[in-house]
Amino acid sequence: MPQLLNQPYPCEEPARRRWAKAFWIGVFVGLFLLVFQPFDLNRWQTPYKNAKILGFGLISFAVTAGLSQLLPVLFPNRFTNERWTVGREILWVTTHITLIAVVNYLYLNWLIGKPFHGIGLLGMMVVTFLIGVFPVGGSVVVNYIIKLKKYSQAAREIPIHEHPAQNRIDEPEPCVITITAENEKDSLTFVANDLLYIESSDNYSTVVYLKNNEPVKTLLRSSLSRLENQLDPDSSTKSIVRNPIVRNSIARCHRSYIVNLEKVEKVTGNAQGYKLHLHNGQFQLPVARKYNDTLVAQLKALS
């Protein structure tokens, strides 16, 4: 069990998906209370009772949406795939449930105009936890297994080219890349086929390339998008990558990474998605879901 809790789990989700989750949690809570009416709600006599009970669902939606939208913005370094696990996901959702219980208890007290004695705050938290923890834990584990199977199997079916680009007989001479920083003074020049990947670091980007077959890292003050534009022949920026082989192999795989697909030696998959392995597995780059199809197609074209 501890090993399962430490397995990687997807964390970085689009905002619309987080809104959708909050909505369905609110619907579940509202309908559950309306149908089963626990906590002595079945004996509660009040005008517009059904509307007031559905208010618990609305509060649950607001609490869930607030946590899922606000905290990742306030603490971005904690809510990343690199740090997220099955155990963290269960704890995160359990935190939602606990806070929902607290706020709904306060809402109930406000509705009746006095402290609710049918069940105390601690009792409501315990009951809510018991109601929610098993479906939450179960759904997280099931989702983990489904995603792990999906990406692991799909990764095994992705063909990887057997020979590096620098050995291609149809490339008469090396293509040289020059990228410049925002100040237009600092620049970096290297053979395109030696590029491994470029990683975003806030207002900087780390360029990782091979020099004498050893990885070298150079930091440039430039956004990743700006460097991507310099490598994109279809951008408004003048292209510096004129070699079609190199041009087709350099691609965005994540919001924080640009990768040279010619250097990908293996593709694996876990519950978070695909992982690209470079330079004898020394570097592992994540693939965001939005790039899955295009990246797989490019890898197949290069094989």
From TrEMBL:
The chain crosses the membrane at residues 22-41, 53-75, 90-108, 120-146. Keywords: Membrane, Transmembrane, Transmembrane helix. SMART domains: LytTR. Residues 179-303 form the HTH LytTR-type domain. Pfam families: LytTR (PF04397). The keyword Iron does not apply. One of its GO terms (molecular function) is phosphorelay response regulator activity. PROSITE patterns: HTH_LYTTR. This is LytTR family transcriptional regulator.
